[in-house]
Amino acid sequence: MTSAPSLVTGRSARRAQTQQRLMNSAVEVFAERGILAASVEEICERAGFTRGAFYSNFADKDELVLEMLRYYADQDVHKVEEITDLLRSNAEMKGNPPGILINMALSRLFGDPSNERSAVLARHEMHLYAVRHPALRRPYQRYTEDLYHRVVTLLDGTLEAIGLEFSVDVPTAVLLLHGATNMMQMESLLRDVPPDGSAMEVLLKQITRPRPDRDGPAVCEA
């Protein structure tokens, strides 16, 4: 009787490892071929599994995509916590300009195309896939809404640390910054060069202002 929980735990751990390997291989295949063109066979072959391993974990490719969204959502929670601490430290101790800080935050959250090419492309592919498949639109919307909420928390904390606040409503600011991040990522991938953050700094100057409760000048004005 005492061995049953360990057996269940062992099976659960192996199942989780199998799912993770399948999702990791899916990221690579989705980035190379797009989700529509990617086949279950390719994903399994890349992961070193048979089709049986796939279908014992996911009903179909759509369920795999949904599970990947849930995984990304969980990862984003931890990322936001880590990034917030990192940015506050950089803002308060190093006096970095706000544009650099925001670029740092968004690239860590959404992926840096310089060293996360497959992950960045896979995220864009998942967005397009949700647009093309009505059944996935609402789950994807829930994921993005939750992600935006976390981004708001992240950016608000960062700006507060450097004595700034948004001069436009926060949802609009997040959409503008996310859109700029997407364009920077795609241009970086297209031209095979590191992301250029100059546009982000220009945008940030237009949508932020000094906080009225700030004692003394903001860091970016030093």
From TrEMBL:
Top-level taxon in the UniProt lineage: Bacteria
Swiss-Prot/TrEMBL keywords: DNA-binding
PROSITE patterns named in the record: HTH_TETR_2
InterPro entries: Homeodomain-like_sf, HTH-type_TetR-like_transc_reg, HTH_TetR, TetR_C_31
Keyword Cell cycle annotated: no
Any GO molecular function: DNA-binding transcription factor activity
PANTHER family hit by this protein: HTH-TYPE TRANSCRIPTIONAL REGULATOR RUTR, TRANSCRIPTIONAL REGULATORY PROTEIN
Protein name per Swiss-Prot or TrEMBL: HTH tetR-type domain-containing protein
Species of the source: Microlunatus endophyticus
